[in-house]
TrEMBL record:
The active site is at residue 155. GO terms for biological process: spermidine biosynthetic process. S-methyl-5'-thioadenosine binds at residues 31, 106, 137-138, 162. InterPro entries: PABS, PABS_CS, SAM-dependent_MTases_sf, Spermi_synthase, Spermidine_synt_N, Spermidine_synt_N_sf. This is Polyamine aminopropyltransferase. It comes from Calidifontibacillus erzurumensis. The gene is speE.
Length: 275
């Protein structure tokens, strides 16, 4: 008998993957956590029925969350990741020698625990001495910080459950306060096919707080629609004005210095969401 996992990405559409076995399943304090082994994408982390990351395509998301802001900022030393308990964004951050400290604030410690066990190639840098891991509420961590971080990355789930507050104007205002005077942030902002209203809302809110706001995209096959967006808000630095001399050699599979600027070239229907 064949076993298949299906994520209903909308009421009328979903994606499905053949699975070899269920590695772990648990109702944590915050969400339903499943770790499954798939034929096509390898080990897959699923939270509340939504695919978070897979062994095969994880590098796209994690590289694009990390490297776009870290190459935009001329000297990122103190970096915060909200969410991201699988550790993939942390792994990419540590490829930048200027970063002295990377702080991870993940609300669900079980995500960290089982990512280390079943996704070691993603979570392998969480014990690095340059990393501080905090199991706690990222929203509250941001609210209590002031003039502390050069770059903040919001690696959240979709806006349901514990991540709802991470898509609010108050949260973006808190990020601005937590950033230094020349700081910037990036947040994943879902896809333009099914969540156009969310992207419009985020763009509108962030533009009221940050003088420079840009939307960029990446192709991630296991995420709804395959086209994923990221919103960058910056107090000073424009990601489209990074000089070539600032790009140093880095070990990546998706991100390149050419792609850095190309990712901001949007299809017309996506560009219209930013107006």
């Amino acid at each position: 008998m064949e076993l298949w996992f299906t994520e209903k990405q909308t009421e009328h559409f979903g994606i499905t993957a053949r699975i070899k076995q269920t590695l772990h399943t648990e109702q944590t304090e915050f969400q339903k956590l499943d770790m499954i082994e798939t034929v096509e994408f390898g080990n897959m982390l699923v939270l509340d029925g939504m695919v978070m990351t897979t062994k095969k395509d994880e590098f796209v998301y994690h590289e694009m969350v990390a490297h776009v802001p870290l190459f935009t900022h001329p000297n990122p030393e103190n970096v915060l990741v909200v969410g991201g308990g699988d550790g993939g964004v942390i792994r990419e951050i540590l490829k930048h020698p200027s970063v002295k400290k990377a702080t991870l604030v993940e609300i669900d410690g079980k995500v960290i625990e089982y990512s280390k066990k079943y996704l070691p190639e993603i979570a392998g840098e969480l014990d690095n001495p340059r990393v501080e891991v905090i199991v706690g509420d990222g929203f509250m961590h941001i609210a209590q910080a002031e003039n502390e971080y050069d770059v903040i990355m919001v690696d959240s789930t979709e806006p349901v459950g514990p991540a709802v507050n991470l898509f609010t104007k108050g949260f973006y205002a808190g990020i601005a306060k937590a950033l230094k005077e020349d700081g910037l942030f990036v947040a994943q902002t879902d896809n333009p096919w099914f969540k156009a209203d969310l992207i419009r809302s985020v763009q509108r809110d962030v533009k009221e707080i940050f003088p420079i706001v840009k939307l960029y995209t990446a192709n991630i096959p296991t995420y709804p629609s395959g086209m994923w967006t990221f919103t960058l808000g910056s107090k000073k630095y424009d990601p489209l004005k990074v000089e070539d001399s600032r790009f140093h050699e880095i070990d990546t599979k998706y991100y390149t210095k050419e792609l850095h600027k190309a990712a901001f070239v949007l299809p017309r229907f996506v560009e219209e969401l930013t107006k």
